[in-house]
Write a structure and sequence with these properties.
Blueprint: E1 5-13, E2 18-23, E3 27-28, E4 42-43, E5 47-49, H1 78-82, E6 96-97, E7 113-114, E8 124-133
Antiparallel strand pairs: 1-2, 1-8, 2-5, 3-4, 6-7
The structure holds calcium ion.
Length: about 140
């Protein structure tokens, strides 16, 4: 039986307010024989808790993109445009970029954001993605 993990994302804004979002059943390339060929595709179960809100479910099913390996499906290179790798959405990159820049460099450019809590033109100060095994 496959082990099940939950994901907790801790966030901090520029005023040092903190928030979080939590999901059940986190995995990458869930059913792939070769995760690298599958792009380490994001899989999440249900949003289970957190005042930051569910911004990440929109990104489920997308591959992890980096500036030198654009797998996001959007016309642009989201990792280059936002400033860091992530599971970007195929339409306008999506609303979460936890490796994005601290400040948007161009008009309407997203950066380090979690759109249901901190979004353009504001950016986050810090984030942590933590996973742990769900006890049986
Ligand atoms: Ca692209």
């Amino acid at each position: 039986m496959k082990r099940e993990y939950e994901l907790r994302v801790d966030l901090k804004d520029m005023s040092n307010n903190t928030s979080f979002a939590q999901y059940g059943n986190f995995s990458l390339s869930r059913n792939a024989l070769n995760p690298e060929n599958d792009g380490y595709r994001l899989y999440l179960g249900a949003f289970t808790d957190g005042e930051a809100g569910d911004a990440l479910s929109d990104h489920v099913g997308y591959m992890f993109s980096t500036y030198d390996n654009d797998q996001d499906g959007d016309v642009q290179n989201c990792a280059a445009y936002w400033g860091g790798g992530f599971w970007y959405h195929s339409q306008s990159c999506g609303g979460v970029g936890l490796n994005g820049r601290y400040k948007a460099m161009k008009l309407l450019q997203h950066a380090f954001s979690w759109f249901t809590w901190v979004d353009f033109p504001e950016t986050l100060r810090a984030s942590q993605m933590k996973m742990r095994r769900v006890p049986n």
